[in-house]
């Protein structure tokens, strides 16, 4: 998908996102922190730029719009952090996509000990659509729990539990298998709070032994090997954007009724 720049000015954070720096929200944070210059002057949130004529510099590097948007699905292994660099020299997902000739970045996060489906892109609009708090794109995880799962605990997961002083949205639970001291479930959530599933289980006295994301919207991890990636198809990109749009419209409709 190629985006053609015109002479019309666009918001600075939008241009930064389209250039692959980060999502719009993160770009706004960089601008607010005084780390962005436009034509030699420190930029402000809300500034607009002409992508063809204005010189935008972030952390000493001049930006240019990407020639083509890239969308990939990575099967993140355990032990990797969801970032493109790390000052503590820990393993990060950038190592797994180093052969991609584009400045891509993760869409959302998976914590270090979690694994599975991680989307990466250089399209800020796409990243923002899937991670904005007003969007509730469903994400499904396969979770191995110790020691068991009672009816009451399952109901609590489905109805919502309080973590960090706020109730979670209702979720969907499907029991995959039960063994002595071990239950495997598929848990679908509709928000993306920090370490949400681990905190939900912890609040109910459940130990998470393994956590793997297997689906976002209608896009499934499938048989992709751990540590490998593949490009999303145009249909998958469209489906994810449609899912985000539909969830946003639903959210706005509910708010209008309150």
Describe this structure in words.
This protein is an alpha+beta fold and 258 residues long. It is 25% helix and 28% strand. The protein has six helices and 17 strands. Strands 7, 8, 9, 10, 13, 14, 15, 16 and 17 form a nine-stranded mixed beta sheet that branches. Strands 3-2-5-6 form a four-stranded antiparallel beta sheet. Strands 1-4 form a two-stranded antiparallel sheet. α1 (12-18) packs across α2 (24-32). The model is unreliable at 1-6 and 250-258 (pLDDT under 50).
Structure at a glance:
The chain has helices at residues 12-18, 24-32, 124-131, 151-159, 196-203, 234-257, and strands at residues 10-11, 36-38, 41-42, 48-49, 56-58, 61-62, 71-76, 105-107, 115-121, 139-146, 162-163, 166-167, 172-179, 182-189, 207-216, 219-220, 229-231.
Strand percentage, roughly? 25-35%
- The percent range for helix content is 25-40%
Mean pLDDT: 89
Radius of gyration: 20 Å
């Amino acid at each position: 998908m190629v985006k053609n720049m015109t002479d019309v000015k666009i918001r600075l954070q939008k241009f930064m996102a389209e250039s692959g720096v980060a999502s719009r929200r993160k770009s706004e944070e960089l601008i607010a922190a005084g780390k962005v210059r436009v034509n030699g002057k420190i930029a402000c949130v809300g500034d607009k730029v002409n992508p063809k004529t204005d010189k935008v510099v972030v952390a000493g590097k001049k930006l240019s719009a990407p020639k083509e948007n890239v969308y990939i699905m990575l099967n993140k292994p355990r032990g990797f952090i969801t970032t493109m660099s790390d000052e503590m020299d820990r393993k990060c997902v950038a190592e797994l996509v180093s052969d991609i000739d584009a400045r891509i970045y993760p869409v959302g996060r998976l914590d270090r000990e979690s694994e599975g489906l991680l989307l990466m892109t250089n399209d800020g609009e796409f990243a923002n659509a899937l991670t904005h708090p007003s969007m509730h794109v469903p994400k499904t995880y396969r979770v191995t729990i110790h020691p068991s799962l009672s009816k009451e605990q399952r109901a609590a997961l489905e109805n919502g539990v309080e973590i960090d002083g706020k109730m979670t949205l209702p979720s969907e639970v499907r029991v995959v298998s039960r063994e002595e001291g071990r239950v495997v479930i598929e848990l679908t959530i509709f928000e993306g709070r920090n370490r949400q599933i681990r905190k939900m289980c912890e609040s109910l006295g459940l130990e998470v032994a393994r956590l793997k994301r297997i689906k976002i919207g209608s896009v499934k991890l499938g048989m992709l090997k751990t540590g490998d990636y593949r490009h999303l198809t145009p249909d998958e990109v469209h489906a994810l954007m449609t899912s985000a749009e539909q969830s946003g419209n639903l959210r706005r409709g509910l708010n209008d009724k309150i």
